């Protein structure tokens, strides 16, 4: 297993990625998280691991930008656990709950991929073609019977007079 990628945070608040020998932004760190890259952020002076603080900063910015994940009530509950006798258990509980949620999400996506297939647009296209075929067959039947499809009463009567061919719809 390879070592974690090291990102150094300097006193000027800049982040330096030692793997690519370049300064990066919080957005770049977010991209690393999304790519599931193994990394640590360390204070350049003290070599202290400050990864959690950087991740919290990214979460804070995300929460302020758009549709937040954490409601005010959820945040209040989390704050109340600090200093509580159950504080140690809360982190573990949240971690396991999120992992269970991620596992369920992965399972649902896999099942949808198996049901729909690799190309959901093809499924929609096939469904549209199938519906068009049904519509054309119904129109052909109505014209053969001499019924104007725009006349709803005649269409309904034709539907009622149609013999049951043993197929359920």
Q: How many alpha or pi helices?
A: 6
Radius of gyration: 30 Å
Low-confidence stretches: none
Gap from first CA to last CA: 57 Å
Question: Mind sketching the topology for me?
Answer:
Blueprint (H helix, E strand, L loop, with lengths): L4 E5 L5 E3 L4 E3 L1 H9 L4 E5 L7 H15 L6 H10 L5 H30 L3 H25 L7 H10 L8
Parallel strand pairs: 1-4
Antiparallel strand pairs: 1-2, 2-3
Can you offer a commentary on this structure?
This protein has 169 residues and is of the alpha+beta class. The protein has 3 domains: 1-69, no CATH class; 71-116; 120-161. The chain has 6 helices and 4 strands, in the order βββαβααααα. Strands 3-2-1-4 form a 4-stranded mixed β-sheet. Strand 2 (15-17) and strand 3 (22-24) form a beta hairpin. The protein is elongated and about 90 Å long. The model has no long low-confidence stretch (mean pLDDT 84).
Tags for this model:
alpha+beta, 3 domains, 4 strands, 59% helix, PHA_DNA-bd_N, Polyhydroxyalkanoate synthesis repressor PhaR, PHB_accumulat
């Amino acid at each position: 297993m390879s070592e974690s990628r090291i990102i150094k945070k300097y006193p000027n608040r800049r982040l330096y990625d030692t793997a690519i020998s370049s300064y990066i932004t919080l957005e770049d760190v977010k991209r690393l998280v999304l790519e599931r890259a193994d990394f640590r952020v360390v204070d350049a002076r003290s070599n202290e691991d400050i990864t959690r603080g950087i991740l919290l900063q990214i979460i804070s910015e995300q929460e302020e930008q758009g549709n937040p994940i954490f409601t005010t009530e959820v945040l209040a509950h989390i704050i109340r656990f600090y200093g509580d006798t159950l504080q140690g258990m809360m982190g573990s509980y949240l971690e396991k709950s999120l992992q269970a949620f991620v596992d369920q999400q992965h399972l649902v996506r896999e099942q949808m991929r198996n049901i729909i297939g690799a190309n959901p647009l093809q499924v929609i296209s096939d469904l549209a073609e199938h519906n068009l075929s049904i519509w054309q067959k119904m129109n052909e039947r109505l014209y053969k019977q001499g019924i104007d499809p725009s006349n709803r009463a005649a269409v309904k009567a034709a539907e009622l007079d149609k013999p049951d061919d043993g197929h359920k719809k």
